[in-house]
Amino acid sequence: MVYFPGSPYHIRCNIIKSLAKIGDRRAYETLAAILKDDIDYRIRADAAEALGCLGDFRATDILTDKLKNDKDNAVRHAAAFAMGKLGDRRAIESLFQVMQGDRDAWMRKAAAIALGEMGDSRAVETLEEAMENNPEVDKKHLEDLISRLKSSLTHPATAASAPEN
């Protein structure tokens, strides 16, 4: 795949968003390299989001690494949401660790939302707390997640689960 690392931000961003929109898994290598190596945190965050859209579980390892180790919280945040969208259950423990122990409340909330998207019931308490303590959150989205998670606890046969890979 062709990528233009010396181009202005908006051009690189549009390339990444186009790759995500197309959804072709052949874009994985390019997006993973961008996430790993680009110096611009905005581009890394865009690449993380795009990897979540591809549906390729190979992205789990690099997203997990960025969730734990990227120096910029915007990239970590994007990695958490991408992991939730991707749905690879191998990511659950890393997301749970962030939800339980990250110093940044924004990161704890992002990890809880990702876990909620993946159907992990341990996110319920953190999601409820985020809804009560953060007036800027999308309460409807969190209410829907909490409702789905609680429903899966009472009706386990209908619980959402992502395939193991």
Task: Give a brief rundown of this model.
With 165 residues, the chain is mainly alpha-helical. The chain has helices at residues 9-22, 28-37, 41-54, 59-69, 73-86, 92-101, 105-118, 124-133, 139-154.
In the CATH hierarchy, the architecture is: Alpha Horseshoe
Task: Note the beta-strand portion.
Answer: under 5%
Query: Given the structure, what is the number of helices?
Result: 9
What is the CATH topology? Leucine-rich Repeat Variant
Shape descriptor: globular
| CATH homologous superfamily annotation | Leucine-rich Repeat Variant
Rg, Cα atoms, Å: 16 Å
List the helices and strands and how they pair.
Layout: H1 9-22, H2 28-37, H3 41-54, H4 59-69, H5 73-86, H6 92-101, H7 105-118, H8 124-133, H9 139-154
Describe this protein with a few key phrases.
single chain; mainly alpha; Leucine-rich Repeat Variant; 165 residues; globular; 9 helices; disordered C terminus
Written overview of the protein:
The chain is built from 9 helices and no strands. With 165 residues, it is mainly α. It has a single domain, classed as Leucine-rich Repeat Variant, CATH 1.25.10. It is globular.
